[in-house]
Amino acid sequence: MASSLLLPSALLALFFLLLSASTCSARAEAAAAVLTLDADNFSEVVSAHHFIVVNFYGPWLYWSKKLAPEYEKAAAILRNHDPPIVLAKIDAISNKDLRDKYRVVGYPTVKLFRNGGSTVEDYIGARDAESIVRYLKKQVTPASTEIQSAEDTATITNDNGKGKVNDGTLESYHKPDPIPEVGDQHVKKYAPDNRHEVISNSAKKVLKMRQRMKWAFQILVATIAELFTKDG
């Protein structure tokens, strides 16, 4: 009886051991997809990329810890994107000069560096892996091309098959989707593949205001947590 009970227990223990090892391996692989930057390699790495995303984080702060696994998952997905989208991180507390240079006042702060770092902007999307991936893919979507001659139309492709080119003339096209209304916010999506969105200035201001309020709350919580940690 004892031996018959021991075997299932051993198999169950082995199962959980393998499951744990698999989970740790997946997490390690995702973490490896994120480049680690510091004062010594920051400029070199950023200047070498046309587009790179950098997470300025505080190692022991709650919101930085919460973002880390989602950021790593996104990095593991985006490195297989065409072209690859590179995600990096830097300890902003230890690298004060870079933190001040890029005006980082809260942790984590994610910034988008374009053209070797000549252009810098804040990431203002949600902070789960799926949202990060979706947001960053939109950032590297090729801009629409202006058609200036009949020859230019020869390069047009329409994935949904509703437009065709015949003798340099675009015979048909995919009509834009209707403009949805959400309060006073109007979003218009253009053909052929609905990648390009135009959002009214009022909508952009609302989005930025909400994000800033969220950041301010996060900074307040992190500051309180830091005070309690030091007191402890």
From TrEMBL:
<comment type="similarity">
    <text>Belongs to the protein disulfide isomerase family.</text>
</comment>
<feature type="domain" description="Thioredoxin">
    <location>
        <begin position="22"/>
        <end position="141"/>
    </location>
</feature>
<dbReference type="InterPro" id="IPR013766">
    <property type="entry name" value="Thioredoxin_domain"/>
</dbReference>
<dbReference type="GO" id="GO:0003756">
    <property type="term" value="F:protein disulfide isomerase activity"/>
</dbReference>
<keyword id="KW-0732">Signal</keyword>
<protein>
    <recommendedName>
        <fullName>protein disulfide-isomerase</fullName>
        <ecNumber>5.3.4.1</ecNumber>
    </recommendedName>
</protein>
<keyword id="KW-0256">Endoplasmic reticulum</keyword>
<dbReference type="GO" id="GO:0005788">
    <property type="term" value="C:endoplasmic reticulum lumen"/>
</dbReference>
<keyword id="KW-0676">Redox-active center</keyword>
<comment type="function">
    <text>Acts as a protein-folding catalyst that interacts with nascent polypeptides to catalyze the formation, isomerization, and reduction or oxidation of disulfide bonds. May play a role in storage protein biogenesis.</text>
</comment>
<keyword id="KW-0413">Isomerase</keyword>
<dbReference type="InterPro" id="IPR036249">
    <property type="entry name" value="Thioredoxin-like_sf"/>
</dbReference>
<dbReference type="Pfam" id="PF00085">
    <property type="entry name" value="Thioredoxin"/>
</dbReference>
<feature type="signal peptide">
    <location>
        <begin position="1"/>
        <end position="26"/>
    </location>
</feature>
<keyword id="KW-1015">Disulfide bond</keyword>
